[in-house]
Design brief:
With 191 residues, this protein is mainly alpha-helical. The protein has one domain. It is 69% helix and 0% strand. The termini are far apart. The relative contact order is 0.18.
């Protein structure tokens, strides 16, 4: 475990020494807020659900987001109970927290921002592999990275959250394909 913590410490040090600057501070703060509570992904999912041509992508994203909420945030975080990097006792007095966003109070592993962002973006990308869906994947990766930049998650939190998110998005796409074909052709609320 010490080896892994040393690697994570080295990544935090590299981010501080190489990337931290006032411009990226502002950009990463804005990017991370897109993942707060999943509001961006929920809104996008609702828009996709409202239109017949994109409804399956919306269903896939919704399933991915639900998996993230239930499995990642509801079960895994509470089961593992990993403290945030700024709360790790062996790093007290050494770890720099930039205070760009309020300190999250939930457990750290796995990253919820990373998981929900990659779950929704993957579910959407599975439906249409083009420029705008690729841009959503890039945004999801940036949201995930912002959590390391802002020092609210260890790199392994972000890695595992991202991997789980991709899996949830793929599961969402698979399950969305199992719905009756008429679901995607009918208006919402009608059979």
């Amino acid at each position: 475990m010490n080896f892994l913590l040393n690697v994570e410490w080295a990544i935090f040090q590299w981010v501080e020494q190489t990337l931290w600057n006032p411009i990226l501070d502002t950009i990463m703060t804005i990017i991370t807020r897109l993942g707060d509570g999943g509001w961006f992904w929920i809104l996008l999912t609702l828009i996709l659900l409202a239109m017949r041509p994109t409804r399956r992508m919306g269903v896939a994203a919704a399933i991915g987001l639900l998996c993230s909420l239930i499995i990642n945030d509801g079960i895994l975080k509470n089961l593992i109970q990993r403290p945030r990097p700024f709360d790790l006792s062996i790093w007290q007095g050494l770890f720099q927290y930039p205070e760009l966003i309020p300190r999250p109070e939930s457990f750290s592993f796995p990253s919820g921002h990373s998981c929900s962002s990659l779950a929704a973006a993957t579910g959407i990308w599975m439906g249409r592999k083009n420029g705008w869906t690729a841009a959503l994947l890039v945004l999801a990766v940036l949201i995930a990275f912002s959590r390391i930049y802002l020092h609210v998650h260890y790199p392994t939190d972000v890695l595992m959250g991202s991997l789980l998110g991709v899996v949830y998005g793929m599961v969402g796409w698979y399950l969305a394909g199992r719905l009756p074909k008429g679901f995607y052709e009918a208006r919402l609320g009608q059979r």
